[in-house]
Amino acid sequence: MIEMDGYVGKILKIDLGNGTTEELNTEDYVPELIGGFGVGLKLVWDNINEETTEYDPENPLVFCTGPAAGTPAPSSGRGEFVGLSPKGYPEPWVAHSGIGGDLAWKMKSIGYDAVMVTGKADEPVYLVLSEDEVEIKDASNMWGLTTLKAQDMLLDKHGDDAGVMTIGPAGENLVRWSVIESHTENAAGHGGMGALMGSKNLKAYVFKPGTTEIGVAKPDKLIEEAKKITEEMENGTCIGWPLDPQKPLINEGWNGRYTKRTQGGCTSCCDCASPQTYFEDVPQHYTGSDSISGVMHCVGSCSPFMTNNKWSGKWQEVSFEINKLTDMIGIDQWEAFAGIAWFIQNAYKEGEITELMGHELDLNEDGPAVGPDTESNAGMDPGFAVEFLKKVAYREGEDGDLFAEGARRVAEELGIQEIAKKTHGKHGYPPHWDGRYLHFICAPLWVVNGLIWAFAARDPCSVGTHGFGQSLHRAVKQWGGGPIDYEDLFSMGKEVYGTKYAATGWKKPENLYRDKEIPAIWHEHTGMMKCSIPVCDWVYPMTWSTETESKAGDYEAEVRLFNAIVGTDWSYEKLQTAAERVVNLRRSIHVLQGRTRENDECVIDYFQQPDMWPDDNCPDTINPSKFRTAMDRYYEKRGWDKETGWPTKTKLEELGLNDVADGLEAANKLP
């Protein structure tokens, strides 16, 4: 029995190849690795070698959570998938993919902090996990079903209170940008984890809720902190939208025709900063003749970027329809709506892709929105967009099979890599809070976000770029119309990051690269906290506030929650060190996979495209020399070798990662 609260004490290992199971002790990994993503990375490290690839049976797929899940900690409850990511480019870099809903606490309720799946079943299977047993059951009658139909079948069979997540046809067919879906609103979206699940012939997980208690070391302290943080959220001190406790469940969206209620994204969700709205009986125009229902929010509403940029009337119905199509077939909406269509559009404008899936293309010539172009939509006919997504999900035809591999591998096959770099030049992922295509942020923000992107393995929204670029853009009056002034960033930066130059350089471009590695490292650490405790990416860290003289927010909230739940008495610096340990573990796996500084620098070409920030005092493109110098300072502060980008043995041993240092030394991958 584990002595620490928050954790339930066991990790389940399932080998689908031989049908065996094994239980590991959570306390062998925590609190040093915090939980969640940190524990998942260590399980991956312990089960791969430098030859392991994404579809090797020994590549583990880990679903894990941390001590906050299943407690009243505000805006907690997420789970994380961890594994070698099929979407990564040029290698399947180890990555994570978060999912909300009720899955994490239901897994803990049956006694597990993580479930690791290795091996490959001979035929399609699904897992049924309960306190009493682990069952590997035949899924041949579900293989080929959409995510929602498979979920309905499993809920009918195992009870409406079960936690269920499934893959759709895209995951079954190893589409590198496929997802793992739960209900109509939760998905492990980035990373292609649906394909990793499909490579194991695993259709679904079913968690049957149990009675395992999730202990809290200091209940009164947790309630006190929960009240404090919720009050801060009401003041809008997180991502930029104040929580409205009076928000009605029924609203007048779409003139009251379809909107039924709004709902949060996770258990313990106080209020989703990107409101999740349930729509009912929306008519279909391109995918059938009936009606559909479900949740749509955030990028899920952005299919007009892919199509005709029409957002109202019938086209709002079409947007919802395409959203539900991607849910059902199991396709990453961000890639579909804000990624691969723009790659096709750029190739079309260069005369490289003029015909696709038997259709002559006629796309928008005035986009995508990288200066000096102004329009964000690709201009696909909605009917063709539906056909394209379906054929990709089923790998139908030569083009469907090719585009299932993702933009960078398509470009590799067609010899148009320079075009693909314009949209997918950052490890194979599409634009997101980088100042181009959408999310038009100014240079101080995209320089820091660019550094976070450089050292990432996937879109780093949940491990840094949301917390810095998105949050501060929306906070600052001159940028996103928020409640604090640009000049406040000096005092806020000094208190939170230890440098007043963290987000400055907008008025004085000579400060544009000054100290920018400091907030990049800080946000990588808070990102690891968020994915390991875990808590909400949209709420934490609370870097700014209107309620303090310095405008610094409650940026130490995470450690107080962690201590109240687990029973530790850690300082914020000690939690930062634990997060640093997780960062170095992730980096070590990347190095084992062949990562070098050259891979980090791949982002530079992307940021040489002009940003779209209007009337800016700053340069609109990156300065490669100054950016590389900022990277040098980053490596130095990390204790990594500047030439290779590899962690040193001294740094790894300082963090207690001696076995990792030994493994890299045996692979001749220490500087």
UniProtKB/TrEMBL annotation:
The protein's name: Aldehyde:ferredoxin oxidoreductase
Keyword annotations: 4Fe-4S, Iron, Iron-sulfur, Metal-binding, Oxidoreductase
Organism name: Methanohalarchaeum thermophilum
Transmembrane segments: none
Keyword presence, 4Fe-4S: yes
Alphabetized InterPro entries for the sequence: Ald_Fedxn_OxRdtase_dom2, Ald_Fedxn_OxRdtase_dom3, Ald_Fedxn_OxRdtase_N, Ald_Fedxn_OxRdtase_N_sf, OxRdtase_Ald_Fedxn_C, Tungsten_al_ferr_oxy-like_C, W-dependent_AOR
SUPFAM superfamilies: Aldehyde ferredoxin oxidoreductase, C-terminal domains, Aldehyde ferredoxin oxidoreductase, N-terminal domain
Source domain of life: Archaea
Gene3D superfamilies found in the cross-reference section: Aldehyde Ferredoxin Oxidoreductase Protein, subunit A, domain 2, Aldehyde Ferredoxin Oxidoreductase Protein, subunit A, domain 3, Aldehyde ferredoxin oxidoreductase, N-terminal domain
Family: Belongs to the AOR/FOR family.
Cofactor list: tungstopterin; [4Fe-4S] cluster
Segment forming the signal sequence: none
Pfam family, one: AFOR_C
UniProt domain Aldehyde ferredoxin oxidoreductase N-terminal: residue ranges: 7-211
GO MF annotations in UniProt: 4 iron, 4 sulfur cluster binding; electron transfer activity; metal ion binding; oxidoreductase activity, acting on the aldehyde or oxo group of donors, iron-sulfur protein as acceptor
